Amino acid sequence: MSNGPSRGSSPYHRRYDFESGVSRGRGCEEDDNECSSDPFDIKTTKNASLERLKRWRQAALVLNASRRFRYTLDLKKEEEKEQMRRKIRAHAQVIRAALLFREAGERVNVLGPLVPPHPTGDYAIGREHLASMTRDHNFSALQQYGGVKGLADLLKTNLEKGTIGDDADLLSRRNAFGSNTYPQKKGRSFWMFLWEAWQDLTLIILMIAAAASLALGIKTEGIKEGWYDGGSIAFAVLLVIVVTAVSDYRQSLQFQNLNEEKRNIRLEVIRGGRRVEISIFDIVVGDVIPLKIGDQVPADGILISGHSLAIDESSMTGESKIVHKDQKAPFLMSGCKVADGYGTMLVTSVGINTEWGLLMASISEDTGEETPLQVRLNGVATFIGIVGLLVALAVLVVLLARYFTGHTKDPDGTVQFIRGKTRVGKAVDGAIKIVTVAVTIVVVAVPEGLPLAVTLTLAYSMRKMMADKALVRRLSACETMGSATTICSDKTGTLTLNQMTVVEAYVGGEKMDAPDNALLLSPTLSSLLIEGIAQNTTGSVFMPEGGGDVEISGSPTEKAILYWGVKLGMKFDRVRSESSILHVFPFNSEKKRGGVAVQLPNSEVHIHWKGAAEIVLASCTAYLDKNGSREPMGEDKDKAFRKAIEDMAAGSLRCVAIAYRPYDLDNVPKEEEERAGWQLPEDDLILLAIVGIKDPCRPGVRDSVQLCINAGVKVRMVTGDNIKTAKAIALECGILGSDADAFEPNLIEGSVFRAMSDKEREEVAEKISVMGRSSPNDKLLLVQALRKRGHVVAVTGDGTNDAPALHEADIGLAMGIQGTEVAKENSDIIILDDNFASVVKVVRWGRSVYANIQKFIQFQLTVNVAALIINVVAAVSSGSVPLNAVQLLWVNLIMDTLGALALATEPPTDHLMQRKPVGRSEPLITNIMWRNLIVQALYQVVVLLVLNFHGRSILHLKSDTNAHADKVKNTLIFNAFVLCQIFNEFNARKPDEINVFSGVTRNHLFMGIVGITLVLQIIIIEFLGKFTSTVRLNWKYWLVSVAIGFISWPLAILGKLIPVPETPFGEFFKRRRS
Description:
alpha+beta, Calcium-transporting ATPase, cytoplasmic transduction domain A, Calcium-transporting ATPase, transmembrane domain, 5 domains, nine-stranded mixed sheet, 38 helices, elongated, ATP-binding
């Protein structure tokens, strides 16, 4: 959730288009957020500058800063975190500088014998020696231990098969070298939350007033009767504090659990000769770990072997410099990312023994993050708070003036204050009661819990989204997803199942009747094909020694081709041992192919290529026929192969070509440094095979796409596959309605889009439904063009090269299974099952967050408006208020904490997906909400004020004493007011639907809170009269109270029949003024 320093900014500003509900570009050159003069108008906090975030904090009216800003970005801690990073980076740079000096000295001086390592437990080397060697990049020490092979022997590790991996072995290694965890700062205790809840300025004033009232009451009326007024206020304040602290503490625990989940990276290690997936926390010293592009280096270690391995060490050094790793520079630092190539590493240090562990232990506490909705609600709370303060001040002035001028009377008509006659103690007590009422009005009027309701609903949503296979990394993405107008989705694994199998194959120049029938292949062709499959791969094949199913690992495409190779008779380990790899060109999403150069025992060199069929085919000048003879690639044969590719692609198959060429060993660079920069020849290739790989659509994906279309969210497919394969899948998924839609620019190739000017791309972007043969940069260009057009863009991505698009998009969605760590780090939400249906669920939850906040605002403002008007009118006209301090504190508790819990945790409904996306600048309080609010507040004010002024005659209390009649009347007003809120809580659930009870019984929390509120209200009226200054009500008055509350239901139905204009009221008044 941490926001971190500003990560760049969008150059586009958006304004709300009232007809479409979508923002439109306005051409503001500044950041979206900088264009607005309103400090609370922040469109996105994803790339907001720290200065911009400071502005709204300074503008907010806050009663309890420690609570209000708890879940926002802690600007001070963010600066401290950056300072700590700089210190540790400086430490790393000092070590490297010292290393260079030492290496220079070693060229002159002959090294003395190595100090023998101290054994640790069952191992011949200790953790300190390992940690210092890796941390200091001490190559000399590594050589004297016997290189990586000697070090593996000291650690009892087989470099090919890894550790034994049984429980006893793992426990022994953890005891000797530690675990891959680091000490984390403990989360705040419940007492800290209790202390923070105390910090509210109004509650402190009320406690002081309660203490003064308690002292004066005991002094004037004795301890038996005199403690009630002060004691009841103190008890009510304590109750508010405890309930607030409990609610906040529960939220905190939810966030802690989610943060744990975010840190838990899954990765593969080699144990007992097979690849197994484990948590990053379960890595031990001695583990052998395969690394590929996009991975995070999970611990400190030494490179065993690698090909074109390049590491981005910027997370540790602070310099965005890519460092190439080989046998001369084999040291790998935990926390760095693999920028290119692949390899395997031997783990030498874990946890706190690594620099990354030290860094994470120092800054592990999350610094929080605000969301745009949170900032806007702070603006709403500030405006309401200022109005409330002015009202409270007016009430205070009026009541004090009336009191000290002798216009305030007791129910029996006695004047409360007579100058020169009333005792000082009694006068002070009267003034304290007036101050208490005024301060309590501030407590009710300032909706301190309003911005925190966002955190509550986000915490609830994030927990539920985990069950829906979505892990939220950035809080703001959760609500932004509700505004998404378009989703740019990958094809493979997201719209399809990612379960690939080779179903068609062209080998030897013709189609194989059975693609896995090895008898149809000549020995020469079979040998070359199997060599290309086994060597030109980042996957692996494990054959259990005792028999059993073959275990294949790698990407889905790699697995499909390796499985096909096994069926053709490939013995993976034997084939790989028969030739040695000279150089690797890892698969590149720009070039759409990958290659490898291998040397055979007879000194022959073969260069194998594998990649997108039409691209590899274009480099082929010959092919091997079924007899293994080389035949030139004539025009007719080239056309036949292209026709085969088109036919397979039209059948929604992914087409991959496998080719090779012989090469002269004398032309291969001899030195390792030269080979690292060697460009593998990719011309004059000889085609070996073209395979068609089937990856079926996910069940239900068509329904999910249709759901998005109905919700006003356009789904666009962006894939690296052939345009015809993309079209076939898009038709199957419902992204393209029919063949009639499959024309340019609806269907476009990445190269065509890339070649356009910026303006052309903007025009075309709106129309694109499918982009085939796209590169990650094409995806980035599409995102930028769509955002310029005012769209709120969600993008899925899994590769390292998708990181810029994920970062640029409003919501970046990384894939949890196939996604690289680099993609995940640049994303906002991780889709744990790689399923498009889960993406749609995220949209529902995003809309639910916004809808729940609106429900809570409507409910809270109704209470605010009604309570303020009732007390103000009564105070000005009669000098007394029907709702006293304790009663108002109880109302505040219902409204703030319990109301937020009930309404902010409503689960999403299908109705949400029948609306258009919420525009970012759409007012929080819509015309529909204003209508509902005014109807309910007006009803409550009118009924309760009529009771206040004419209650004695209406309720037939004229025969009672004035004091008792007033108490009964005020008790009924209080009871009816609370019951109105309970009934209105149901209305708030469905602001724009007639049936407010739909699904209510499924929301157990809502029903529980309503039930608890009702039970507590009965207890307060019937048993706690001394505390709340109420009297018991008979069954008739209870019926009257319930009837007053019940009328709010039919009234809400009638209110919803009143039409409201489309244009927001705020915009209407602005137009009138202009």
